[in-house]
Specification:
This protein has 2 domains: 91 residues, Orthogonal Bundle (DNA polymerase, domain 1); 171 residues, Intergrase catalytic core (hpI Integrase, Chain A, Orthogonal Bundle). Helix 1 packs antiparallel against helix 3 and helix 3 crosses helix 5. The chain has 303 residues and is mainly alpha-helical. The protein contains 13 helices and 3 strands, in the order ααααααααβββααααα. The chain is 52% helix and 4% strand.
């Protein structure tokens, strides 16, 4: 294992050497398991594109060219890769390397605001299809938990049995993005599926591992593998291509808003500390507008 105190990086070192150093750093170790996996996947892409470049030669032009290639993976993913690389380069600056971090200065595309949500009928079609086949069972459970609890699919694919309390019918989850703790009730239908899953996979730590072991161990789905399987289930269920796994959380939050749940109460589920952070998840709906106007009229009628 690489020790921070023993590594002697120089300006002439290659970017791949700084990346390897970061992956063994204390800063990386402090990240949650889901965040570590996400960062590592981003840095593998960075290594492939720029790993051979010496730190002193990493220019804005090279960074921009790499970013433009990353855009083929989608705007959100390209921006995430650029942000993670910027963190690594800043680590090098803090170590005293006389290098320039070009990532804050490249021209980035703006992440498009996404408003797509699943309907309850679409969720039911997806889950019914997923649970019909053994190889999709963990995929179905990831999506069901993300929808019922309004959580990120990344946290669901990394969920461990220590978070599940069968006796109290609750899940105590520490969210990976901000480290917030949320305490979620387990409905009877979800409890039924979780108990079945525990009978099969309770001998290891992951709630939703890949259905077959790799190198003798059960491992979580990577983002890419998860999204690939979700697309397979959608196709088998005849669901629209525009629906994604990431939309499950937004769908749950939107349904809570339409049901009249207060933002203060929703925060107990979503883990948000800032009320404004909930705004992007909530779309304008006919039912919501009708309720707002009806309440206004009712107030006027009382005057």
């Amino acid at each position: 294992m690489i020790s921070e105190t023993k590594v002697r990086l120089k300006n002439t070192s290659k970017l791949c050497e700084l990346i390897d150093f970061y992956l063994y750093s204390e800063a990386f170790k402090k990240l949650s398991g889901a965040a570590q996996q996400d960062y590592e996947s981003c840095l593998i892409i960075c290594r492939d594109a720029l790993g051979h470049v010496r730190l002193k030669n990493l220019t804005g032009t090279l960074a921009q060219d790499a970013y433009n290639i990353w855009l083929t993976r989608g705007i959100y993913r390209a921006n995430k890769i650029a942000s993670v690389l910027s963190i690594v380069l800043n680590k090098g600056v803090k170590m005293g390397l006389h290098i320039v971090n070009p990532m804050p200065h490249i021209d980035r595309e703006t992440n498009p605001a996404r408003k797509v949500t699943w309907t309850p009928e679409q969720v039911n079609m997806f889950l019914t299809t997923a649970y019909k086949r053994w190889r999709w069972r963990s995929i179905g459970l990831i999506m069901q938990m993300a929808y019922e609890w309004g959580q990120r699919v990344g946290d669901m694919r990394m969920l461990t049995w220590t978070a599940i309390n069968f006796d109290k019918k609750r899940c105590d989850l520490e969210q990976s993005k901000r480290g917030e703790s949320v305490h979620l009730p387990i409905s009877d239908p979800l409890m039924h599926v979780l108990k079945q899953q525990h009978e099969t996979f309770g001998f290891q730590c992951l709630v939703t591992p890949q259905m077959r072991p790799q190198d003798g161990a059960y491992k979580p789905y990577s983002k890419e593998t998860l999204f690939s399987f979700v697309n397979q289930v959608k196709a088998a269920a005849g669901l629209p291509d525009e629906l994604t796994a990431m939309d499950m959380r937004r769908s749950a939050i939107t349904e809570m808003a339409e049901a009249g749940v207060s933002i203060a109460t929703m925060k107990q589920v979503t883990g948000h500390t800032n009320i404004n952070s909930l705004t992007p998840y909530i779309k304008h709906t006919y039912s919501g507008a009708s309720e707002a106007l009806a309440q206004r009229q009712a107030h006027k009628d009382k005057e």
